[in-house]
Amino acid sequence: MKLPIFFKNRMTEFSLSVIFVIGFLALVLTSNGVFLSRASLQGFLTYLAVPIAIGLAQMVVLCIGQMNLAVGTMGGVSCAIMAVLMADHNLPIWLAIFIGLFSATAMGAINGALVVLTQLNGFIITLGTYTILLGFQYRLVKTFTIDKYPSSLPEFGKRNILGFPYILVVAIITAILLSLFFSRTIIGRRVLATGGNPLAARLSGVSNNRSIFIAHTLSGLLIGVASVITIASLPGINRSIGGDWLLASFAAPIIGGVLMSGGTIAIYGTVIAAGVVRLVDIARAQYSLDPSIVSLSVGVVTLSTVALSEWRRRRTERQNEGMKELI
Amino acid sequence: MSNQLLISKVSKAFPGVQALNEVNLNLTSGTVHALLGENGAGKSTLIKIITGVYLADSGSLKVEGVEKSFHNPIESTHSGIAVVHQERNLIPEFSVEENITLHNPPLKLGIIDRKERTRLAKQALETLGFEIDLTERVKNLSVAQMQLVEIAKALVTNAKIILLDEPTASITGSETSKLFDVIKRLKSQGNAILFVSHKLEEVYEICDTVTVLRDGVSVLESMPLADYKQGEIVDLMVGRHLAERKAETRRVDRNATPVIELKNLQTSLGHRNISLSLYPGEVLGMYGLVGAGRSELARSILGLHAITGGEILVNGSVVKIRNFTEALHKYRIGYVTENRKEEGLFLDFPVRKNISVTILAKILQRLSVINPKKEDDIATKYVDRLGIKVVDNNQLALTLSGGNQQKVSVSKWLAAETKILIIDEPTVGVDVRTKASFHELITELANEGLSIILISSDLAEMVAVADRILVMRRYEFVGDLDNSKDYQSMSRSIMNSIQAS
């Protein structure tokens, strides 16, 4: 089979695209076209933006072979900061957004700095910061829902261009910029090199500590983007924001073809996998399935994709083994 | 004396290489049998056939007179064969007794019988005449102690045939003599021991019989060692085939300022009185056995381990190199690692990215963005220059053969236009032809003005390529020889400088 050039070395992404198209068509057909109505399509696309952004935020940390367990509370805290600043302190929207992005980036930078300073794995560090930030989030929001801020932000969230919600466009542009970062900038390449093989990277003059710091900081920035999207797409902010981000943040990149061992990125894969997960969500609403079905199927898909990619990797390695076995 | 292990006419080929060609070996009980040969002579392959890692293409293998053919290491273990590898196969976090009984823990009602385990481990260590706390974690032991635990592990499987693969490569002299006591004990108990080593003096101390392999052929088969002088054994190992390939000596200007100079360097790893000068366009060989401290010296120079005394001069001025980043970008020093898969390559990356990793700053276009065209052109340049066999520059490094991988690993340093290149064991595990092309490449690069430090434990390689040879032993230089490019005489001088130390 001859694949379009884009999909060369991207079997996972190709399969996902096919699954997405089939799933999409199935939903259209079984709903007698209702899925294509403006409202339901809008709903589908609007709530795709956050999974894409948090998937990418997890992906940049996975690409150095680490994890960020604090995605949810980092997002929750930065949403809370923005909401509180606008509602209680009457800060202009642009300034609140800037501070929201900045604070998320700073949280990422702190994660990165702690990993570098302690030389512990990001898993442990972010498990710690996750809990600390959860405390912050609860203190900031308490048990209220904060919604007394200018309505122009939620309105922005509802607007769209050619049927595409602005916030989805923001997520897609972020993905494209991220893709350029990894393929076309020195820093991006070095981060990937660290993830691909830290020993070889070090010998090649790459500072692994710097790469680790940058990956976590970038993860923070992307969570900031996800937070801005969240605040724009919801009527108000409460303490549950970010609570369901963790699994989603892993599901998109891992289904999308990112390896846990580091060194790979799959931006298109992450985006399209987020789309597939959204389709499952829609299907649940469509057929009034039990919510557990979604968790179940996302879990099964995640596990089987990982197993499949691992199997494929081992097969390639085995095939090369004979060739390399010289004395 | 009975024939424990009889190997006759065993052959094994790999694509492009006849690793073993009708090899014979007769290992009898109660003897220590030396298996000698240069790197690549086929020793490892033979051991792997005896231990069931490879299946021989032809020939027969008999254990206690019974014809066997091992399809996996377990079958070999069941026939009473145990191997103690260079790389230790112990689990650092487990205790001594857990490690000793790892493969076959004594069970009682399906769970491990701790008392029996202790008894077995104790018994095995007593057989060796060696005392150690059985509950100590292996990670807290010295290298020599680990080796003995490894041997004890072999004994609990009731092995009668014990293969020791370079057991003294990384242990000290006094530890070696303790190990020899153990070997003598095992021998007196009727075991058959195959002893693989590069150190001839040790072989003469402990071995009774000898088999020499050269290019996959057993040129001396199971003869009493005492009948042969050390020089004769060396000649057999080396043969005459290499002497014919006599290269001309190159001219190096030793009055110029050295590009790098070490003065009485000491490191935290234990290097002492290390002095050397590398002149422009010179290939300086650093010969020594595995564990002599050569790679460690290179890595110390590049800032990985602490320098505790002495000076490093680059182009005549004293410098302090803090890390590889500084070494590359400030002093233009590159290091081709001996572990190409672990440290030299990004296996999951395309060849293009493997080569460009050191020169990202040089392939930028407007807005400091990497120019893919420039990147591809540079990759193509080195793929062509080094004759790397690839489908295109986007082929993953993982899918290349060992020799081509090594060339990719070298390319990134050439692309970075380093002035000094430290090349560590470049031809381990590559076939003969690629090896020769590597030697040509090194000479060519030196002729173009690159100054090279070549680390190798392959004498033939040293003599073929180096202008001068420094001999390292136990973290010190014990010899500094001009290379006459005559293999026989050089190998003798080098052996002498090692023995004299």
Task: List the defining traits of the structure above.
heterodimer; A: ABC transporter involved in vitamin B12 uptake, BtuC; globular; B: alpha/beta; Rossmann fold; 3 domains; 6-stranded mixed sheet; 17 helices; 22 strands
Describe the structure.
The complex is a heterodimer of chains A (327) and B (501). Chain A has 327 residues and is mostly helical. Helices cover 74% and strands 1% of the residues of chain A. Chain A has helices at residues 11-30, 38-46, 49-62, 71-89, 93-118, 122-141, 152-158, 166-184, 186-196, 198-203, 208-233, 245-255, 267-286, 291-324, and strands at 160-161, 164-165. Chain B folds into three domains: 3-238, P-loop containing nucleotide triphosphate hydrolases (Rossmann fold, 3-Layer(aba) Sandwich), CATH 3.40.50.300; 256-332 and 418-432 and 449-501, P-loop containing nucleotide triphosphate hydrolases (Rossmann fold); 339-417, no CATH class. Chain B has helices spanning 43-50, 73-78, 96-100, 114-128, 143-156, 173-188, 200-206, 230-238, 294-301, 324-329, 340-344, 351-356, 372-386, 402-415, 432-447, 459-465, 487-500; strands at 3-14, 17-28, 32-36, 58-63, 66-68, 81-84, 107-108, 111-112, 161-165, 192-196, 209-214, 217-224, 260-267, 274-278, 283-287, 307-314, 317-319, 333-336, 420-424, 451-456, 468-473, 476-482. In chain B, strands 6-9-10-3-11-12 form a six-stranded mixed beta sheet, sandwiched between helices. In chain B, helix 4 (114-128) crosses helix 5 and helix 13 (372-386) crosses helix 14. Chain B is globular, with a radius of gyration of 25 Å. Chain B is built from 17 helices and 22 strands. Classes of the chains: A mainly alpha (327), B alpha/beta (501). Chain A binds chain B through residues 8-9, 180, 183-186, 189-190, 192-193, 196-197, 199-207, 259, 263-264, 316-317, 320, 322-327, and chain B through 14-17, 19, 40, 42, 44-45, 323-325, 327-329, 335, 337, 339, 342-349, 353, 356-358, 360-361, 364, 368-370, 372, 394, 396, 398-399, 401-403, 405, 412, 429-431.
